[in-house]
Amino acid sequence: MSSEKMLAAPGSRSTPLLPNLSHTRKLLGLPTSFAQMLEQMRSSLEIDLPLSRATTYKFNDLAGIQQVSQKSRDKVTVFLQHAMLATNSPDLPTPNEQEYTGGASETGWIGVARALNQSRSNLKQWNYLIDFIEARIELEHDLLNQVSLSNSPQDIVFNNYIALLQSQTLIPESSLRCAHLILNEQRHSYSEEDIALWLCHSRLDFYFSTIALLELGWLDLLRQISPEMLERKPLWFERGIMSSFIQPLVIEGDKVELKDSFDIFLKWLADDIGTSPSKNRITLNKMASYIPIDKIDETANGYDLGEKRRDLLKDWRKGKLPSYSKFRGFIEKLRSARQSSVEVDFLTDIGMAVMAIDRLFLEIFEDLEHSQSIQCQSTQCFQAFNRSIVRYPEYYRYFQASYSKKQGA
Considering the domain boundaries, does residue 202 fall inside one? Predict the structure, then answer.
């Protein structure tokens, strides 16, 4: 199968409906294997998981998990429940072997949905996102069954696949037409720029959708717990927050520059995080003073903690992004010092989404730069990238309108 065709194959491990979970975890800066996740949580939260390392690492694949006893699985379930309570974060158990589907991308997401559902009462701001993920799991499951069980001619399968993407995603019609041509190997019917647009739109659709739903959920909650923010920050509710951090590429002749969304986010934090009206902007140097430093990180030979914090902030601004625990600790200190009325979890979740976007944009940027199957002339492919990333406000408005209708019904 050609690399172009792999971009669109309905039976592949990752479709625009639902990406591979390990890829999503990578974008969030989280461990990409379940065993790594358990080890990290055990270490950082100091919660006991009474399993040997060998047993823990069996949870990484289907063959291994089938060898794990029910008693050990129950221990993992209890451990994850304790971890979720300790962090107020749904950090993701694994499905049992009956929920595996032979390597499909829905594998793992079933466990995510189950964990999120168990936490619904404590994570009301995630309700829109939970419903969306559950719906996508069902769609992906049905699609994979159709592909594996259908006796229909290949062109009928492809037509049904494109029709599904047309009804369930916000991928533009032009890119879906290109995908259809790619699937049918009509090589001379589309351009290199068309391929680049399909690659960008198909990989961004799920993440733009989930981020829009995440911030819609948070803004709904903010209306309830801090109604004064409606008056103080009307633009947050009208167009969302993430739109401010997603910037197009800077293209000057043959020079192309990818902006760091997280750097823009940090400046936003310095300007205003919903603090009391009397609070003014703080400098980035002052903001660096809120970065938590563990004793183990202290550096001798005259390199004091202030310098360490300032250098860490410089690293963050240059794309060396912080871990979840380091970032959350920073937000807690900053919010307390600035007397912000905005929830720590809200700012943390938005920041994590921004970091994910940075990693995703860089990944797509590098794929366009080095792809063997896409040889765009000049900056055509990067112009295509620009046209795809500036569409985020469309996603926010679409889901805002969809859920406003449901609430008004």
Answer: no
* 274 token code pair: 């919903």
Long-range contacts, stretch 247-256, CB < 8 angstroms, 24+ apart: 248/386, 248/389, 248/390, 249/365, 249/382, 249/385, 249/386, 249/389, 251/379, 251/382, 251/383, 251/386, 254/378, 254/379, 256/379, 256/382
Instruction: Give the structural domain span for 283.
Output: 226-409
64-67 long-range CB contacts below 8 Å, 24 or more apart? 65/94, 65/96, 65/97, 65/100, 66/97
DSSP letter (8 states) at residue 10: T
- What pLDDT, on a 0 to 100 scale, did the predictor assign at position 131? 92
Q: What domain count does the chain have?
A: 2
What's the CA gap between 190 and 169, in Å, rounded? 21
* Contact call for residues 262 and 354 (beta carbons, < 8 A): yes
- Domain end residue (candidates: 41, 66, 91): 91
Question: Residues 315-362: pLDDT tens digits?
Answer: 999 999 999 889 999 999 998 888 777 888 899 999 999 999 999 999
Does 377 reside within a domain?
A: yes
Please give the pLDDT value at position 44.
67
pTM score, whole prediction = 0.83
**Is 39 a domain residue?**
yes
> Any idea what DSSP says for residue 172?
-
Task: Tell me: do 380 and 231 sit in the same domain.
Answer: yes
Q: Specify the residue for token string 């009509």.
A: 186
pLDDT at 266: 93
How much of the chain is helix, strand and coil, in % rounded to 5?
A: 65, 0, 30
- 231/138 Cα distance (integer angstroms): 39
233 shares a domain with 87? no
Boundary-marking domain end, from 46, 63, 91: 91
In the predicted model, residues of the chain with pLDDT beneath 70 are 1-9, 11-13, 34, 44-45, 60-63, 65, 84-108, 119-120, 150, 274-279, 295-303, 371-378, 405-409
- Strands 255-257 and 250-252 turn out to be antiparallel
Q: Judge whether 221 and 228 are in contact, CB under 8 Å.
A: no
**Any domain includes 359:** yes
What one-character DSSP code corresponds to residue 18? B
What is 43-103 written as a DSSP string? HHHT----S-HHHHGGGGSHHHHTTS-HHHHHHHHHHHHHHHHHHTS-------GGG--SS
